[in-house]
Design goal:
Layout: H1 9-27, E1 31-32, H2 47-50, H3 54-58, H4 62-77, E2 88-102, E3 105-112, E4 130-138, E5 147-162, E6 171-186
């Protein structure tokens, strides 16, 4: 390859610098992640049910079914995480379950992958729940509408008492991830 003439070197230098600054602009962008990526690929949340046929499942006695459900919930509570997400800037969609308000502003919440998780159904696996904390409050329009949250994701197991009106003792919910949330915004694909 022939050497570039001296007159073209400044042009080449400007092109190289612009490429590096263009790349750097996107390096600060948070990674958009989906819920499945928060589960290790080899982890099967349905493992306790896999060996049962439908007929065997429906033939279980109430006490056998309760033991099976307790086993599944224990597995969900101890769900493994993906270590690569520790300290990563991410953007995740989901539904907010409020935990703490300051006046009318949301300060602390659980983010879950689908509406009704933990409220009308048993909680999802711990690796499918993010415990979010905001430095500044966010005016939550509705728990029925999904949002994007952006911030630093950490591996941090916690147990939260989720109280719902009309439920006597509330529900203990395990989360495997936490986030210092910098931004909450309406979900738009």
């Amino acid at each position: 390859m022939k050497h570039l003439k001296v007159a073209h070197r400044p042009l080449l230098l400007m092109l190289l610098l612009s490429c590096f600054s263009w790349h750097g602009a996107f390096a600060d962008e948070p990674a958009k992640i989906d819920w499945e990526s928060l589960m290790p690929q080899d982890w099967n949340p349905n493992k306790v049910f896999d060996d049962l046929t439908d007929d065997q499942y429906y033939a279980l006695s109430d006490s056998e079914l309760m033991i099976l459900e307790q086993t599944a919930q224990a597995m969900f509570d101890a769900a493994p995480v993906v270590d690569a997400f520790e300290g990563m800037q991410v953007k995740v969609p989901g539904f907010v379950l409020p935990l703490e308000f300051s006046n009318t502003l949301l300060k602390e919440f659980l983010l879950v992958p689908y509406y009704g998780a933990c409220i009308h159904t048993p909680p999802p696996p711990a690796n499918q729940i993010i415990h979010g904390k905001l430095k500044t409050g966010y005016k939550l329009e509705s728990i029925y509408l999904p949002v994007w949250i952006t911030g630093t994701l950490n591996i941090s197991r916690s147990q939260t008492q989720l109280n719902e009106e009309g439920v006597a003792n509330g529900l203990e919910v395990q989360s495997a991830y936490s986030m210092n949330v910098e931004l909450v915004e309406p979900y738009i694909e």
